[in-house]
TrEMBL record, chain A:
<dbReference type="InterPro" id="IPR000515">
    <property type="entry name" value="MetI-like"/>
</dbReference>
<dbReference type="InterPro" id="IPR043429">
    <property type="entry name" value="ArtM/GltK/GlnP/TcyL/YhdX-like"/>
</dbReference>
<keyword id="KW-0813">Transport</keyword>
<feature type="transmembrane region" description="Helical">
    <location>
        <begin position="199"/>
        <end position="223"/>
    </location>
</feature>
<dbReference type="InterPro" id="IPR035906">
    <property type="entry name" value="MetI-like_sf"/>
</dbReference>
<feature type="transmembrane region" description="Helical">
    <location>
        <begin position="126"/>
        <end position="145"/>
    </location>
</feature>
<keyword id="KW-1003">Cell membrane</keyword>
<dbReference type="InterPro" id="IPR010065">
    <property type="entry name" value="AA_ABC_transptr_permease_3TM"/>
</dbReference>
<dbReference type="Pfam" id="PF00528">
    <property type="entry name" value="BPD_transp_1"/>
</dbReference>
Automatic annotation (TrEMBL), chain B:
<dbReference type="GO" id="GO:0005524">
    <property type="term" value="F:ATP binding"/>
</dbReference>
<keyword id="KW-0067">ATP-binding</keyword>
<comment type="similarity">
    <text>Belongs to the ABC transporter superfamily.</text>
</comment>
<dbReference type="InterPro" id="IPR027417">
    <property type="entry name" value="P-loop_NTPase"/>
</dbReference>
<keyword id="KW-0813">Transport</keyword>
<dbReference type="InterPro" id="IPR050086">
    <property type="entry name" value="MetN_ABC_transporter-like"/>
</dbReference>
<keyword id="KW-0547">Nucleotide-binding</keyword>
<dbReference type="InterPro" id="IPR030679">
    <property type="entry name" value="ABC_ATPase_HisP-typ"/>
</dbReference>
<protein>
    <submittedName>
        <fullName>L-glutamine ABC transporter ATP-binding protein /L-glutamate ABC transporter ATP-binding protein /L-aspartate ABC transporter ATP-binding protein /L-asparagine ABC transporter ATP-binding protein</fullName>
    </submittedName>
</protein>
Length: 448, 263
């Protein structure tokens, strides 16, 4: 008969792990040299990495930075290393980097004598796009990081109206009156709701600003401009280009697609037949059509349908199409987040008496969006990279410019360096977004 | 599970049932598709009553109390809560929901908010209570459920029993006149059931009107003033607990009680 009775009289203290399993040695042993096969594989990999890096690093860093043409570049290479193979000619970037960043945007856009004008020394070159970019950072900071002072949100609110004015120029009254449309909507909602009821108030708050934007803004702004003229020189859309254009399209599409996508996702879940059908139809149609098709519609077909002589800016048309495209994808990503929420969250919110919008805003959306962060950021990154497609309809994004640069006899035949530079800049932006999303996920992780 | 796992003396002095009707349900029917879940339910609940609803799973007891704050919609009959009739009128629904607190089997706390924020959310947004006042109320009720020290944690960091007590506190912050409990202890470890039941007993001692779907028969025996037994979507038997447990009338009830108390 065995003795099953056992009583521990003393609890075991915690002990240090064995030395071979911690530190660099422990790590290398566990991950690199864990058995014969793995050791061999590690050594083969190291040799491969060495050869790749050797070629890549010497190409990147044993390179020519100062030359005025590809021919000159090659001469320097032959003189220095005895061969043209295996060395980069960064001189093209040195020569054309302003063009790659700004396209043909004039450094000093002005008729002589006007403010922001000719290079009088008063304003640095590319003052307007650079200021727009700095303001963009300020406007985005309080949205991305909650340690940034809340007062910067004013910049965020003003930026959508200030940026177009800075970039395209013209009278300040246009953007101001466009902003006034939101004020009109708000006032309509506040004043008319008691008179014609909640639904009527919402309809008025949407309809009146739309009428204002479509028919009245132009007239009123022109009138005000004739009374008090505050304007800066205009820059035409076809002069926009380079990374400035990519960032412009990317930021607008990213900024607008998230709210539109949320509304579409909610609409798709709605019990209201018409709302649901419209949302599903929109999402399925836009997702079912290639972006290039939409861009061609924007650049060519739209003119066929609009009355002759209508001025409808090409960049604006592209912005609308890219935004709609991104919104459709965003809607589905957000819907995934909504579907992942347990039904109990809706019931918890309902049982406390929160109404639909309160529940969405306070309970459902914060969680659904958090779940969808990886998908949302993937869509953002995709949209930003898709902005290169606008080169197909003749806008000079960085890829379009690389063709334009090659068309110059001096740089005819140069590919790698241009694409490497463009790829590097895109990578910096996309990697930044990806890192931010990981930071955000960590920050929002609440132990559940 | 036959006896309540509590050693405290229950103070019945405040557990008075008044004559005022809190909930009135008349000829209520509900279908899920073509399935008739609730059949001709008639039930009056007076203020201060503590009612336990028991029955086998699928008998419609959860559905019944979920109809009272319209988490489920009934198709015919009337439900009148505190003088307000439940219809598809959103205003009435929101009014009733803010008067009726509810605790769920899976707590349904909001995981992205702290315990304190969970408790202050509805008072601030629905009742428009100033934040400071809402926080004071929340702390008062968190003390009552004995977890004020957890106020700044997130629900995911708490045990099941603590979460359910927070859920009760969250409902109480809306100062409801009626509390609904939908199997509040079914998802809990045995060790934690007691702390939740203690909280519910305390609530009963203060005279709260309670409707409780539960399998805790000890709780029913000691706290309830009426036990309702449901089967196949109908109320089969209702009686005072003593009578219900010691002298069940219907065969179905006897069978149920023998199964649940038999071991």
């Amino acid at each position: 008969m065995s003795d099953v009775s056992f009583v521990r009289t003393e609890m075991l203290p915690q002990q240090e792990p064995p030395g071979s399993s911690v530190g660099i040695v422990g790590w290398a042993r566990a991950n690199l040299f864990d058995g014969v096969t793995n050791s061999v594989l590690t050594i083969i990999s190291l040799i491969l990495v060495y050869f790749v890096l050797e070629g890549l690093l010497s190409w990147t860093f044993q390179s020519v930075w100062n030359a005025s043409s590809l021919t000159e570049c090659r001469e320097i290479m032959t003189a220095t290393w005895g061969k043209t193979h295996g060395h980069a000619c960064w001189a093209v970037i040195n020569d054309r980097w302003l063009q790659l960043l700004y396209g043909f945007y004039p450094p000093y856009p002005a008729e002589p004598g006007v403010n922001f004008g000719e290079n009088t020394g008063a304003w640095p070159a590319y003052f307007r796009p650079n200021l727009s970019f700095v303001l963009l950072l300020l406007a985005v900071a309080p949205v991305l990081f909650d340690k940034v002072p809340r007062k910067l949100l004013i910049v965020t609110a003003v930026y959508p109206f200030l940026m177009p004015w800075l970039m395209w120029g013209g009278s300040i009254w246009g953007p101001v009156m466009a902003a006034a449309g939101f004020g009109i909507g708000f006032l309509a909602y506040r004043l008319l709701t008691p008179v014609i009821g909640g639904l009527g108030g919402i309809i008025a708050a949407i309809a009146l600003p739309v009428i204002w934007w479509l028919f009245l803004v132009g007239i009123v702004a022109a009138g005000l401009e004739s009374v008090v003229s505050i304007s800066i020189p205009e820059v035409e859309s076809r002069k926009f280009g380079g990374f400035m254009l990519s960032i412009l399209i990317g930021v607008v599409a990213i900024g607008c697609s998230l709210p539109i996508g949320i509304v579409l996702a909610l609409g798709r879940q709605s019990d209201l037949m018409i709302v649901k059908t419209l949302c599903v139809g929109f999402i399925e149609f836009i997702r079912g059509v290639p972006l290039i098709t939409l861009l061609f519609v924007a650049s060519v077909l739209l003119n066929v349908f609009l009355p002759p002589g209508t001025q409808f800016d090409i960049i604006l048309r592209v912005l609308i199409m890219v935004t709609l495209f991104a919104s459709a994808y965003m809607a589905e990503v957000v819907r995934g987040g909504l579907a992942a929420l347990p039904k109990g969250q809706y019931e918890g919110a309902d049982s406390l008496g929160l109404n639909y919008w309160q529940a969405q805003r306070l309970i459902i959306m914060p969680q659904a969006l958090k779940i969808s962060i990886p998908g949302i950021v993937s869509t953002f990154i995709g949209v930003f990279k898709d902005t290169t497609l606008v080169s197909i309809i003749g806008l000079l994004d960085p890829l379009g410019l690389s063709n334009a640069i090659r068309a110059d006899a001096a740089w005819n035949g140069i590919y790698w360096e241009l694409f490497a530079f463009i790829a590097f800049l895109f990578f910096v932006f996309c990697f930044g977004m990806s890192r931010y999303s990981m930071y955000l996920e960590r920050k929002l992780h609440k132990g559940h | 599970m036959s006896e309540l796992m509590t050693d405290r003396q229950i103070d019945r002095s405040k557990m008075q049932v008044s004559d005022e009707v809190a909930i009135e349900i008349r000829n209520m029917n509900k279908w899920y598709g073509s399935f008739h879940v609730l059949r001709d339910i008639n039930l009056n609940v007076n203020e201060g009553e503590r009612i336990v609803i028991a029955g086998p799973s699928g008998s419609g007891k959860s559905t019944l109390i979920r109809c009272i704050n319209r988490l489920e919609e009934h198709q015919s009959g009337d439900i009148i809560v505190d003088g307000t009739e439940l219809s598809s009128d959103l205003k009435n629904i929101d009014k009733i929901r803010s008067e009726v607190g509810m605790c769920f089997q899976h707590f349904n706390l909001f995981p992205h908010l702290t315990i304190l924020e969970n408790c202050t959310l509805a008072p601030i947004w629905v009742r428009k209570t100033p934040r400071k006042e809402a926080e004071e109320t929340a702390m008062h009720f968190l003390e009552k459920v004995k977890i004020p020290e957890q106020a700044d944690k997130y629900p995911g960091q708490l045990s099941g029993g603590q979460q359910q007590r927070v859920a009760i506190a969250r409902s109480l912050c809306m100062k409801p006149r009626i509390m609904l409990f939908d199997e509040p202890t079914s998802a809990l470890d045995p060790e934690m059931i007691k702390e939740v039941l203690d909280t519910m007993i305390e609530l009963a001692e203060e005279g709260m009107t309670m409707l409780c779907v539960t399998h805790e028969m000890g709780f029913a025996r000691q706290v309830a003033n009426r036990v309702i037994f449901m089967d196949q979507g109908q109320i089969v038997e209702q009686n005072e607990p003593e009578e219900f447990f010691n002298n069940p009338k219907s065969e179905r009830t006897k069978l149920f009680l023998s199964q649940i108390l038999g071991h």
